[in-house]
Amino acid sequence: MDVSILRLKGLSVVDPAPLDKVLVIIPTYNELENIELITSRLRRAVPQAHILIADDNSPDGTGDVADRLAEADDHIHVMHRQGKQGLGAAYIAGFRWGLDRGYDVLVEHDADGSHQPEQLPLLLDALKHADMVKGSRYVTGGSVVNWPKSRELLSRGGSLWTRLMLGIPVKDITGGFNAFRAATLRAIVDKISSVGYNFQVDLTWQALQQGFTVAEVPIEFVERERGESKMSRTIVVEALVRTTAWGVRHRVAQLTGLATGLGGKVQQLARGVTSRRAR
Ligand SMILES: Nc1nc2c(ncn2[C@@H]2O[C@H](COP(=O)(O)OP(=O)(O)OP(=O)(O)O)[C@@H](O)[C@H]2O)c(=O)[nH]1
Ligand SMILES: [Mg+2]
Predict the structure, then answer these.
(1) Where is pLDDT greater, at 200 or 150?
(2) What average pLDDT does the segment 48-69 reach?
(3) Residue in 56, 112, 150, 226 to alter for ligand 1 test, most ligand atoms within 8 A of Cβ
(4) 112 C-alpha to center of ligand 2: Å?
(5) How far is the CA of 233 from the centre of ligand 2 (A)?
(6) DSSP SS3 for 76
(7) What are phi and psi of 178, to 5 degrees?
(8) Which one in 49, 60, 123, 209 has a CA-CA gap of 20 to 30 Å to 36?
(9) Higher pLDDT, 275 or 254
(10) Is 183 exposed, middle or buried (0-12, 13-18, 19+ CB in 10 A)?
């Protein structure tokens, strides 16, 4: 078990809505080598949570393994999708599935081990005091393990560019280990149009624009050890073009006095975290 200590002194509960029914959504495309390990780690780390595997008809048979896992465990569910349509589309379908079934909390979680199930309790804890919680590599206490310098530079550069363009103090805006209250997602899910990397920026940007509180908590992000990355040049270009367009629109609105302000608030909860990895 991971030990995570987060002091939330001074933060108030934003919403008394229950946070008991948790759905962790795992989008998969060719994650045969990872899916079993990640689901068993999740089941151990947060036993009450349900898991939805959203598989895009992976050619390597990930969907069949997911079916087998679901048969053996009533906390595991599978959504079979027609073909590879991008991680954003899989998440949106998963969010709608979870909202329709009355889950209180919905979580984004990659299959490749980059997001550590043992750190999920930290995000769920912080959600008592926020509307959306981002696992953050770039707040104090956060870290990246085994990334080549070039990849870290791309990620940090992308985050900085987005922060400057949109004028929001989120340190790790492209981070994909996120937890939402159902009410937050319900308010933003129809507004999300990005499919690739920028999907994470889109969710955070929409949440802030709708006046929700976004908290960042430190995580240790681990480079995938097995299977192939689906990151591509197209995904990076999509992110760059879109955030720049939003930023320009936002800045023009500010200059012409038409900007409504963000309404939302960002909190960085960056103290007192220790973590131990379980494998
Ligand atoms: N359903 C579905 N899942 C996808 C798709 N593309 C990626 N994924 C999943 O989304 C998660 C993140 O994808 P990764 O390939 O790890 O992408 P990444 O984390 O941006 O890249 P790396 O850091 O290099 O691993 C993994 O669980 C993938 O299997 C897709 O088109 N459909
Ligand atoms: Mg990955």
Answers:
(1) 200
(2) 98
(3) 112
(4) 6
(5) 15
(6) strand
(7) -130, 145
(8) 123
(9) 254
(10) middle
Q: Which numbered atom of ligand 1 lies nearest the CA of 30?
A: 29
Residues with CB under 6 A from ligand 1: 27-29, 31, 54-56, 84-87, 90, 110-112, 114, 224, 229-231
Name all domains of the chain by residue range, CATH numbers in brackets: 22-268 (3.90.550.10)
Q: How far apart are CA 136 and CA 159, in angstroms?
A: 11
pLDDT on residue 278: 36
Is the pLDDT reported for residue 272 higher than 60? Answer: no
Give the environment of ion ligand 2: residues with CB less than 5 A: 112, 114, 224
Bridge partners (DSSP) listed for residue 24 = 51, 107
Q: Where are the beta strands (DSSP E) in the chain?
A: 22-28, 50-55, 76-80, 105-108, 132-136, 143-145, 178-181, 213-218, 220-222, 265-268
By alpha-carbon position, which residue is closest to atom 4 of ligand 1? 87
**Would you tell me how many other CB atoms lie within 10 Å of the CB of residue 100?**
8
pLDDT in tens, 225-246: 887 676 666 767 777 778 788 8
30 DSSP 8-state letter: S
Considering only CA atoms, which of 161, 181, 172 is closest in space to residue 200? Answer: 172
Owner of token pair 């308010």: 187
Give the chain's end-to-end CA distance (angstroms, integer).
10
Q: Where are the alpha helices (DSSP H) in 181-261?
A: 182-188, 198-209, 233-255
Determine the residue of 24, 26, 29 to mutate for testing ligand 1's pocket, defined as the one with the most ligand atoms within 8 A of the Cβ atom: 29
Pairing status of strand 265-268 against strand 220-222: unpaired
